[in-house]
Design brief:
The chain is mainly β. The chain has no helices and eleven strands. The strands form two sheets. Strands 2, 4, 5, 6, 9, 10 and 11 form a seven-stranded mixed β-sheet that branches. Strands 1-3-8-7 form a four-stranded antiparallel β-sheet, with no helix packed on it. About 30% of the residues are buried. The mean pLDDT is about 95.
Length: about 120
């Protein structure tokens, strides 16, 4: 059973940075092909794709609004995916969810990111 645990959210001022982490268990990044992704859900809105990375190839995809401001990465030794977010804007405020596609789709519990002065 794949389990995902996010961390790293919090309150940050506009222009600031945060690094979100997603620790995965139940499959190995190094031995099993999968996709790790991040999604955001702002209050009253649907969940939206932010970025994804292949656990084996490292290939990345980004939603247009975060290109140049965010970087998704993974550490196969730690079985952890990351989302580094820079130049944060108030409109980035949302709950950020980690997801894994690996013989099924699995979601973490989410971590709140609030961008406010």
């Amino acid at each position: 059973q794949v389990q995902l645990v996010e961390s790293g959210g919090g309150l940050v001022q506009p222009g600031g940075s945060l690094r979100l982490s997603c620790a995965a268990s139940g499959f190995s990044f190094s031995n099993a092909s999968g996709i790790m992704s991040w999604h955001s859900q702002a209050p009253g809105k649907e969940r939206e794709f932010v970025a994804s990375i292949s656990t084996i190839t490292g290939r990345t995809l980004y939603e247009d609004s975060v290109k140049g401001r965010s970087t998704i990465s993974r550490d196969n030794a730690k079985n952890t995916a990351y989302l580094q977010m820079n130049s944060l804007k108030p409109e980035d405020t949302a709950v950020y969810y980690c997801a894994a596609i690996q013989q099924g789709v699995y979601w973490g519990q989410g971590t709140q990111v609030t961008v406010s002065s």
